[in-house]
Amino acid sequence: MSFLTLENVSHHYFSKKDFTKALDDISFSVKEGEFIALVGPSGCGKSTILSIVAGIVQQTSGNVLLNSEPIRRSELSIGYMLQQDYLFPWKTILDNVLLGPKIRNTATEEVKDKAIELLHEVGLSNVTNAYPDSLSGGMRQRVALVRTLITDPKVLLLDEPFSALDYQTKLKLEDLVYKLLKNYHKTAILVTHDIGEAISMSDRIFVMNANPGTIAKTFDVPIEVRDEMPFTSRRHPKYQNLFDKVWEELNKNDTTTPI
Ligand SMILES: Nc1ncnc2c1ncn2[C@@H]1O[C@H](COP(=O)(O)OP(=O)(O)OP(=O)(O)O)[C@@H](O)[C@H]1O
């Protein structure tokens, strides 16, 4: 059963003199609890899709559906995780995590306990009262993850959340995020330029073309790869096979990077 659907979605960005056709006739469905990845060249509209799903950008045409009905924004809670963590330097880690609930007036003792529990789950129990400046990039992204999860969003939009991290930290965080999202049965859409990350974390991959942004091809990640944690899944022969196919698809229409 489809949970979240984009139906013939197109989008133009208008300026005073010009316009950009960012997306052309995008259609796909995501099941509840499913993890999908969008990969494609720079400017193909990946972030625009996330913004449309989040309701930050209103598509020029087409529909966004929730459980096959036109979406009512109040019915879908969304969590966003970005490349930058946007932690407030003057607030402690715990207060950064509790910012959303405090704004909504829902920061009960129970929510505070949940925040502490989640910080423990991501290995940050010992820094709840520290300030962001004293944390590494990977630790800060773990705080950002907890800050996203504390509001219990139904859908997580992950816009290149690991791309600013060193490679080792990135691999570790991919495992951690994957484990948490599966444990909490979250639906997630990941935008990434990293084919390996897309294969090792998601159930399906949408490869996009640019100018305007379209979905060129959808790949199902084989069950044997999906059943493993992201790091170990990279050892599976079917991982490499899919990597080659996604790479080939990405390069079919890419005229920007001659090698
Ligand atoms: N606010 C905006 N105003 C005008 N044009 C925009 C705006 N945001 C994005 N665009 C244009 O829309 C197209 C899609 O942009 P988008 O950021 O969604 O692509 P992307 O695939 O996420 O890119 P990247 O991988 O570089 O982050 C691009 O041509 C971009 O320049």
From TrEMBL:
Residues 4-235 form the ABC transporter domain. InterPro entries: AAA+_ATPase, ABC_transporter-like_ATP-bd, ABC_transporter-like_CS, ABC_transporter_ATP-bind, P-loop_NTPase. PROSITE patterns: ABC_TRANSPORTER_1, ABC_TRANSPORTER_2. Keywords: ATP-binding, Nucleotide-binding, Transport. It comes from the Bacteria. Transmembrane segments: none annotated. Gene3D superfamilies: P-loop containing nucleotide triphosphate hydrolases. CDD domains: ABC_NrtD_SsuB_transporters. SMART domains: AAA. GO terms for molecular function: ATP binding. The keyword Nucleotide-binding applies. This is ABC transporter ATP-binding protein. It comes from Ornithinibacillus salinisoli.
